[in-house]
Amino acid sequence: MESPTAKSLVLDLLSTLGGRSMPVSALVAAGTLFEIGEPTLRVAVARLLSAGRIERDERGRYRLGPGAAAIDRRIQSWRRLEERTRPWQGAWAGVHLSGSASRGDRRRSSKALELLGFRELTPGLRVRPDNLSGGVPALRRELADLGLEPGAPVFRMEELSPADEARARSLWDELDLATGYERSLLDLSESERMLDRLAEGDAMVETYLLGGRVLRQLVLDPVLPEPLAPASRRQALAAAMRRYDRLGRTHWSRFLAGHGAPHMKSAARRPSDDGPTRAALH
Question: Which residue pairs, CB below 8 angstroms and at least 24 apart, start in 179-188?
């Protein structure tokens, strides 16, 4: 499993604090577990601070900043994965991209649409089943928060042509999703059995890396209805990850408490330029 960058580690750890802050000494100490040196870690902190993704309080401690808030909310929603769905009636949600947006807007739009499980049906048109709670109005708000290009219409579609319906249903690979769920369920089970035999630092690294990989899988899961994906296996994986998250919490909480950092909730790398979502801290 790939080790985190200094930037991703900082964001991961700060996302565990529920809006609270931690000293840079805790970030530096955590970096040593992944062979990230103090100078590299401090440079990452400075750059994230300059970008508004973290902020410093009056005591010189750090917390997530406004620039990371929307992605962090989306990442933390993995715990309530199935609460985000409603029965699918066969309609689709669509987003039309203009093609004339700036490169930065296009990049942000692509990331926002990926996070919410959209796929391209025709050039400029992204779709997903309209099975998420709140329907299109909620999708419209969340996509805007995540950086969808201004003015891009978000709408509901019904009665696609038979050819378009068949193509839309084929945009996701059901077998690939099912295989991924089963592989991660097995990996979590094997890791749970092994954790008690590991040294504390090794257990912290294990839960961070494996838990982060599974959290990325859950955060980026398109949350498709049962006709298009094995929803029951997705639910099983989310339940297994909640159990594993509690184990990760026991290993990381003592470490963070020793550095004056309250350990609140699990962290997950935001899918961004910093790389894949990761971390199973609590």
Answer: 180/217, 181/230, 181/233, 181/234, 181/236, 181/237, 182/233, 184/213, 184/214, 184/217, 184/237, 184/240, 185/233, 185/236, 185/237, 185/240, 187/214, 188/214, 188/237, 188/240, 188/241, 188/243, 188/244
Task: Mark whether 208 and 238 lie in a shared domain.
Answer: yes
Position 85 in a domain: no
Same domain flag for 146 and 176:
no
Query: Where in the sequence is the domain holding 109, given as residue range(s)?
Result: 91-157
User: Is residue 137 domain-resident?
Assistant: yes
Q: Please, which residues have CB within 8 angstroms of residue 119's CB and are 6 or more apart in sequence?
A: 126, 127, 128, 171, 172, 222
Record the pTM: 0.84
Mean pLDDT per 10-residue segment, the chain (282 residues): 88 85 92 95 95 88 85 79 89 92 88 94 96 96 92 95 97 97 98 93 94 92 94 95 91 82 52 40 32
Q: Write down the pLDDT at residue 262.
A: 63
Within-domain flag for 25: no
